[in-house]
Amino acid sequence: MRLPSEPEPPYQINIVPMIDVIFAILTFFIMSTLYLAQSQGLPVNLPGANTAENQTQNPAVVTIDAIGNLAFNRQPMTLDVLEAQVRALALSGQQPLVVIDADKAVTHGKVVEVMDRLRSIDGVRLAIGTKRP
Questions:
Q1: Would you give per-residue pLDDT tens digits along the chain (133 residues)?
Q2: Which of 108, 32, 42, 25 is nearest to 77 (CA)?
Q3: HSE of 42 in the Cβ direction (CA atoms, 13 Å)?
Q4: Domains, the chain
Q5: In what order do the strands lie in the sheet with 125-128?
């Protein structure tokens, strides 16, 4: 119990809980933006291009890793199976956009071979995945 003659203690604003909340919100935003960067293919070291453009259509991704292994939407497969899957996608009535994410260490011949097989399918549009330097 306080006597009437005692002065009131000065009011204090404790900002430590507010700082904790702000850091929790900041952590949430940082973590959520990491998931906004869509990585539809397997991780490869893409070559850089200053004139790269973003595609608005949801693409099918063909990944060619540094040793020449193929994957279609993260599923490893051979070139013949890849061609059959893309052909089935094209026969569904839509014009699929197929992005080729080729590691910069893969040989040019392997990329051309994949592109040649996919270009033989009617209605397929091709794009090459790059990153901005």
A1: 566 677 777 888 888 889 999 999 999 988 887 776 555 555 656 666 666 666 556 778 888 888 888 998 888 989 999 899 888 888 887 778 888 888 888 888 888 898 888 888 888 888 888 776 6
A2: 42
A3: 16
A4: 60-128 (3.30.420.270)
A5: 75-77, 70-72, 60-64, 97-102, 125-128
